[in-house]
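so my prof wants the structure for this chain in the tokens format not the other one, which i didnt know existed until like an hour ago. anyway here's the sequence
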Amino acid sequence: MKIQIPNNWKPRKYQKPTWKALCNGAKRACIVAHRRWGKDDIALHWAAVSAMEKTATYWHMLPQAAQARKAIWEAVNPHTGVRRIDEAFPHEIRETTREQEMMIKFVNGSSWQVVGSDNYNSLVGSPPYGLTFSEWSLCDPSAWAYLRPILAENGGWAIFIYTSRGKNHGYSLYNMAEKSPEWYSTKSTANDTDVFTEEQLQNELREYQSAYGEDAGKAYWLQEYFCSFDAALPGAYYVGELSKAEQDNRITSVPYDPSLPVHTWWDIGRTDYTAIWFVQYAGREVRVIDYYQNNMQGPAHYAQELQDRRYLYEIHHLPHDADYVQMGSRDGKSVKEQFEELMPSQDWKCHRRTQSEVSDIFVAKAFFNRCVFDKDKTQEGRESLGAFAQQWDDKHKVFTGVPAKGWFKHGADAFRYLAVGYQEDFDQNVIVDDRNTFMGVMRRNTHGVSRPII
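here's what i got, hopefully its the right format
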């Protein structure tokens, strides 16, 4: 029995340019498109074609492994009542289907699997030749940094499909792809297709505003249906502060000044991320010159990263748990003790645990006014700050005020420790008013030089 791939599917009129680009050999594609555009459909069917043409490993990556099953593996096409994976990958071309692993093995030796960007570097087996990042604007951007060299070496392809989520890594990728001759890129709003009528779009707006409030609801609507990168990310803590920093030209080139020592501020993790901000204090200005994060690594890795940068360090500021978390130590030594052995000439300091994370966030919001960020070296860290947001309570239709969890939280926590630690070291009596600005009096800095705080 012969099966034609794509299986009982043809691209819609507005999808044809994208499908044609893929068929003509595009190795990198950035597709920013509105809801119900059919982004996952086109990626699934392209994976089926590619898997039959070249025996290799293919991944469909969601932001989190936990959501991948519902969003892709078990998803049903409402128009046909058939699982989307069964439409794209008919049983006749399969050898096995592993429900638990969300993996399909094909008769020609290829495989396709649904995975999460939160566990990409823990997956075993052959590295991917074809990779779809679904909801890329919500994915961990480190996943692409980790996987990009693999695809560059094996000549594989990568497709990024998503709606906008503010000016984060999705925005950066689209701007890069639009200018690069090696990329295919498209941005398709609800005005560019015939999927929704004007009446339906207005109904969607009313429903979003009913659920999220007038401003947040419209922001979601503009992102979901009109691919607006300018609409604020609802519930985000630091978007306004980052925007003001950009307007004030405080996101620019900030070179390392050898005459000033560097302080590092950390959030510690092993299976999740360890994040490090590198800063220099120049008078009342905080120069944020560098950022680094990684996971599944021990203290020796991060010690080497510090040494490779060849900065002159003054203090490495660790969170409170570094005094007892062992981070893989076989002899029971804490993270701080391990770093002191690896870099004995350095000064390692554990800060106290603060009383309220939410109160600390307001300190961090005010602290932004002091900061100047290196545009290139802190991009990954700034993306984590931009994505850091409140949890949404769907039952009561409110933002809870409690920080959400995700890839972004570690960089945001390390920055919060920096802001609070700076307040403790320099501005012990500082007051954060309801406009989130610092007000204070003369305080000493670490070198014993007094300076005014305004």
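also thought this was worth mentioning. The longest strand covers residues 285-295.
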